[in-house]
Amino acid sequence: MNLIHPSRFWREAIAIRGSVLPMVLPYVVIFGVIATILREISRYLESEHQIKISLEVTLYEIIGAALGFILVLRTNAGYDRWYEGRKLWGGIVNQCRNLGMNCLAYAGKDPNWQRDFMKLVTLFPFTVRNLLRGQLIPEEAEKILGQEDLLSLKQFPHPPSFVLMKLAKLLMKAKENGVIDDFAFLNLDQERARLMDHLGACERILKTPLPLIYSIEIRRSIALFLFILPLALLHRLENDWQTAFLTMMVAYVLFTLEIIGIQLQNPFAAEHLSALPLDDICKNIERQLTGAMPSENKT
């Protein structure tokens, strides 16, 4: 079985949209220019003053291997954060489904209460998405909440917590009115509490990026390595123009790994190429729960 179709391979290999090339290209060009300048300086010193600039390639092989290893570690650390974020959102999907299905199973006496409960469950992932992206109240809230609750939501400092609080109040009301029994109440409330756990873990990823000193030292190492690399390539290539070309190729690889590591740190940012498809996930939850929701004409 051919896992990668040839046409897809070449289409993705030369793709510009969705790649980091536009981000790294300015840096690649800058170091190509620096390599060209250093080559010309070397030519001048050698022709006018008989001074030959040359550095051992072996030293750069060792440093380059170490730098590549560090960048791969950073990329892996970023991917761990991305993958953890995806698992947490998978948990949110499952918990919303569990709440919806258990609501239908345990509260069949009151379809109106079921609709109110499931609408809030549907709203929860949208509020989490906007919170993680630093955005305003989702437009879905206007369709689900009444004017009074919508105003309260806008004034509440943490919208997802407001939705979970409303769910808790609905559960208490259903228990007091005999819509659900003690077992159903405990089951639904535990599922509700797990949503807060997933949200808290997402906020931990969002608010604890990799240490700044880590980024500073990696970028400093990349800059120094690429700045001096042309000196190791001079007089070792058949054509002098190859010095700038090889420097740019190495710069492309290093900066690509650097940008990928940065992008993976925050899997929730909509503008990142590696962002999780939170819009699709939220709409999928909405579609599933809305499809299972009791119709309005039921009493």
* Computed CA radius of gyration, to the nearest angstrom: 28 Å
Beta-strand percent range = under 5%
Count of DSSP-assigned helices:
11
Q: CA-to-CA gap between the ends? A: 54 Å
Order of helices and strands: HHHHHHHHHHH
Number of strands: 0
Tell the overall outline.
elongated
The main pleated sheet reads as: none
Give the helix/strand class. Answer: mainly alpha
What low-confidence regions span 5 or more consecutive residues with pLDDT below 50? none
Helix content: over 70%
Mean of residue pLDDT values: 87
Brief sketch in words of this structure:
With 299 residues, the protein is an all-alpha fold.
Description:
The protein has a domain at 95-208. The chain is mostly helical and 299 residues long. The two termini are 54 Å apart. Helix 3 (57-106) packs parallel to helix 10 and helix 7 (159-176) runs antiparallel to helix 8 (182-207). The chain contains 11 helices and no strands.
Walk me through the topology.
Elements: H1 6-13, H2 21-49, H3 57-106, H4 111-132, H5 140-144, H6 147-155, H7 159-176, H8 182-207, H9 212-233, H10 241-265, H11 278-292
